[in-house]
Amino acid sequence: MTDHDATTLHILNKHPDHTRFRACLDAMAPGDALLLIENAVLALADVAIPLPEVTYALQADCEARGLSAHRPREVEQLDYIGMTHLTDRFPRLISW
């Protein structure tokens, strides 16, 4: 993956029906990136939910929810080490 001009990594753990899920997406600025973890990975199964161009998902959470095998969306899935490296690349992190 190449580095983007992203300034903020938004780490989202809320289910797509949760109000903070929408608040997170609304708060994203051009160049920001999104990392889906925990129940937020369920958004990958619904193509009607718009996700930013730069979106990642935690692989373990996708596997735990049965989303890894059929890969409903082509987002980069990261292991825990990859997630750690990703967080190191951004000057700002916001957890939702």
From TrEMBL:
InterPro entries reported for this sequence: DsrEFH-like, Sulphur_relay_TusB/DsrH
Pfam family name, one: DsrH
Highest taxon of the lineage: Bacteria
Signal peptide extent: none
NCBIfam families cross-referenced by the UniProt entry: sulf_tusB_dsrH
Protein name, as recorded: tRNA 2-thiouridine synthesizing protein B
Species for this entry: Marinobacter zhanjiangensis
